[in-house]
UniProtKB/TrEMBL annotation:
GO terms for molecular function: kinase activity. Belongs to the carbohydrate kinase PfkB family. Keywords: Kinase, Transferase. This is Carbohydrate kinase PfkB domain-containing protein. Residues 81-343 form the Carbohydrate kinase PfkB domain. Transmembrane segments: none annotated. The keyword Kinase applies. SUPFAM superfamilies: Ribokinase-like.
Length: 374
């Protein structure tokens, strides 16, 4: 991947302190550290970009730079410049758990020795995320451009070509020792690393949460996904309604309820998020539907599902009921769509705590958001 091989001694040096201190409760596997470039754009710009609107399609570095150039050329609004921050679905969820919910969280992956890599590290560190399992490598850090239209919908073009990543053989049981949850996002490019992480995490007794990533990923790589689910190793699965529809494409009944039923055959918790219509979830024999919280019009939908996962996981960790888990998820998912990008601002965390109080939900006892706001 354009990076120098990572020696065993370097890995051991980075991981020597895993056992000497408290392991994070939740770990996220994000093989590629990723930096998001988020901007609001109009339809005329979106029409120039190949691929379906609203989805996520990988691009090469030339195309990424071309899109970034177009965005800068089209940007006349000084009040909404491009926002650059640590990104990636798993990073968003982990950062939310740490900064908003005070749940000790860490990330497993690799970042490059470039400006983007340092930005990723600084952003995650300022939000209290444990980066002792994040390997530094020579090479480029992955980037993604997130284009947000006037309806708040986002079109993503990630660039992973030439980016450094953690390899399956670099993972060790020490990475997972002492943690309780592993958060994953389905990606065919990372399948080998995902399988290695699941194998080691299960040996250490971790529960595993899987996000289905995008409707394109489910559509194009359904068989490996089904194998992953059928393995019985996935304890909690999140899908949005588009991913759920792809999962059951061709079935007689392919609605969101059928998708929750399907996922619950393999997972203890199955959740399908429905955007402004809330979510449907199943745990054991209990199925629940919960409406969304907050404004119906999103400023930017980036990170809505990721932050929903933060809230839902917080609920599960704290032993809340299925309905309460969904409501906390709705509060946290609603908090991130109030501003641009997948990171919740301090003001929007305060909004979320207020929503949780109104609904009689237990708020985090320590307001870590105050500690880590930066």
């Amino acid at each position: 991947m354009g990076a120098e091989p990572f020696s065993q001694s370097q890995i051991q040096n980075q991981n020597h302190n895993h056992n000497s201190r408290h392991a994070p409760l939740v770990l996220g596997l994000q093989p590629f550290a990723l930096v998001d470039n988020v901007a609001t754009v109009d339809w005329s710009l979106l029409r120039q970009i190949s691929g379906e609107r609203g989805g996520s399609v990988p691009v090469g570095i030339e195309e990424l730079n071309g899109i970034l150039g177009e965005v800068k050329a089209h940007s006349h609004d000084a009040h909404s410049p491009m926002k650059t921050l640590a990104g990636g679905s798993v990073a968003n969820t982990i950062r939310g758990l740490s900064s908003g919910f005070g749940i000790s969280s860490g990330i497993v992956g690799a970042y490059g020795d470039d400006e983007q890599g340092q930005l990723f590290v600084d952003n995650m560190t300022s939000n209290g995320v444990d980066l002792s399992r994040l390997r530094k490598k020579q090479g480029h850090t992955a980037q993604c451009v997130c284009l947000v239209d006037e309806s708040g919908n986002r079109t993503m073009r990630p660039c992973l070509s030439n980016a450094v990543k953690v390899q399956a053989q670099e993972l060790m049981k020490e990475d997972f020792m002492g943690s309780k949850w592993l958060v994953l996002r389905y990606a065919i490019l990372n399948l080998e690393v995902i399988q290695a992480a699941i194998h080691l995490a299960k040996q250490e007794g971790l529960l595993i949460s899987l996000d289905l990533a995008s409707f394109e990923m489910v559509r194009n790589f359904k068989l490996p996904l089904l194998k992953l689910l059928e393995s019985g190793n996935i304890d909690l699965c999140f899908a949005n309604e588009d991913e759920a529809a792809e999962l059951l494409r061709g079935e007689q009944n392919a609605d969101s309820i059928a998708a929750v039923e399907f996922l619950s055959k393999y997972c203890q918790w199955a959740v399908v998020t429905l955007g402004s219509n809330g979510c449907i979830a199943k745990h054991g024999k209990e199925m629940i539907r919960v409406p969304a919280i907050g404004e119906t019009k999103a400023c930017d939908a980036t990170g809505a599902g990721d932050l929903f996962a933060s809230g839902f996981l917080y609920g599960v960790i704290k032993g809340l009921s299925l309905e309460e888990c969904c409501k906390v998820g709705a509060c946290s998912g609603g908090s991130v769509i109030r501003s641009l990008g997948g990171e919740v601002t301090l003001e929007n965390w305060q909004w979320m705590y207020k929503q949780m109080q109104i609904k009689g939900l237990p708020t985090p006892t320590q307001m870590h958001a105050n500690e880590y706001s930066g």
